[in-house]
Design goal:
This protein is mostly beta strands. The protein has helices at 158-174, 188-205, and strands spanning 15-24, 29-40, 59-61, 72-78, 84-89, 93-96, 102-106, 115-123, 134-140, 148-153, 179-185, 212-216, 225-231. The chain is rod-shaped and about 130 Å long.
Length: 240
């Protein structure tokens, strides 16, 4: 209707088609009409029209910080449309969310200091559009804590041993979840005498002896020696 008309012959078969125009000034189609003929033919050299593609913008985000060993981490796929989701992870176990945009991955203590890469494959895009269907994100797992030697000394007078015990318990009190290891090296008699020195210092200061683990090391034939070791929670226990 009107002075300009668009006639869509995109779905017409090969053949001739006519279009007729006339003017209606309120009395119906009055006066002269005009007819035009259009011929639809095969076009052997024409290319099929390319599909109009609308691909989803796909990305994956992981946890914002570092995950402690044994805890779960969350990965989220961001995409729009009626899609399917298939996840794989480089380590850990997908404990929930497979087939959805959000998964929870359970780590283990053995994964301390490593990374987890989560990869998502989406389905439901138009195959003719060659849309990006895979995305991934990598997140770190916290390294395991390590033990540290606070004091290491050989033969020493009582006052020196007492000062070293004081320093050791300062470190222990600053780390309430840590354990203190006392490893003595020497002959049985030397170890017994060193334990008496340490016990005397603990009793004098009224320290909590239960914070300590006592280990007898071998006799290195070099006289008595002692290590005070601070062992954070989760760290590997020291051995002589």
């Amino acid at each position: 209707t009107g002075a300009n008309v668009t006639w869509d012959l995109g779905g017409a078969q090969v053949g001739s088609y006519t279009i007729t125009t006339g003017v209606d000034d309120g009395c119906g189609i009055c006066g002269k009409t005009d007819t035009k003929t259009v011929r639809v033919q095969e076009c052997p050299d024409c290319e099929a029209p390319k599909p109009t593609c609308s691909c989803p913008s796909l990305s994956v985000s992981g946890p914002s910080g570092v995950t402690n060993p044994g805890d779960a981490m969350t990965f989220t796929a961001s995409a729009s449309g009626n899609l399917t989701y298939n996840w794989t992870v480089s380590a850990g176990t997908i404990e929930s969310g497979q087939g959805t945009p959000v998964i929870s991955v359970r780590t283990t203590q053995a994964m301390a200091g490593s990374n987890v890469t989560a990869t998502v494959d989406i389905g439901g895009t138009d195959p003719a559009c060659n849309c990006t269907k895979t995305a991934q994100e990598t997140a770190p797992v916290q390294s395991a804590p390590t033990s540290s030697v606070v004091e290491e000394f050989g033969k020493a007078p009582n006052d020196d041993v007492k000062a070293r015990v004081d320093n050791f318990f300062i470190q222990l009190n600053n780390n309430p979840t840590a354990q203190g290891y006392v490893i003595n090296y020497g002959s049985p008699a030397e170890i017994k005498a060193r334990k008496a020195q340490i016990d005397k210092a603990i009793a004098f200061r009224k320290y909590d002896r239960s914070r300590l683990v006592w280990v007898d090391g071998p006799d290195n034939k070099t006289g008595i020696s002692t290590k005070f070791i601070l062992v954070p929670q989760g760290a590997i226990k020291p051995a002589p």
